[in-house]
# Entry
Amino acid sequence: MDEMNMNLRLTYKIKEDEVVSTLDKMDKLQGSNKKQQLIFAAIMAIAAVDAYMFISTKNGFALILTMIFLVLGVFYKKKSNFSNRRLAEAFAADPQQIVEVQETQLQLTDRATSYEEIALMVEFKKSFGMNYMGNHYFVIPKHVFADEEQMNSFRNVMKEKLQERFQDQSEKM
# Structure
């Protein structure tokens, strides 16, 4: 690794929506939200059947069931996004995020993480998302890099250190 890569240090303030957007994409990519999506789809399917029953029979009970399942679906959807929102609030509450590329590890704000502990890093259109140490996540928006050269340097180091654990989804997501 050349000297420029070793001195890469980013300090930035992150916004909640940047974190939520990246974490939602990570969930989708890793399939960690499949169960929630299936449950939500089932609730909405039941609501659709009840709505059809109401339309065809004009039965008030079917209308009440439709409304109950719609409210339940909205509540469930919000609850399933709650953990990403809570994590985003915690990120945004920090006065600054720090990423420092070192030879054997990444310094992530208040935690040093070896490259072996990084399970997955994904490049998206507007950010890099990282899953490390089991269930920890870190988000690096692309706009925090000083220029394209600095971002390319970071990308190349991550590709070198993580190899198949680095995924480029920037064309898709």
Summary: The longest helix spans residues 34-57. The longest strand covers residues 118-123. The radius of gyration is 21 Å.
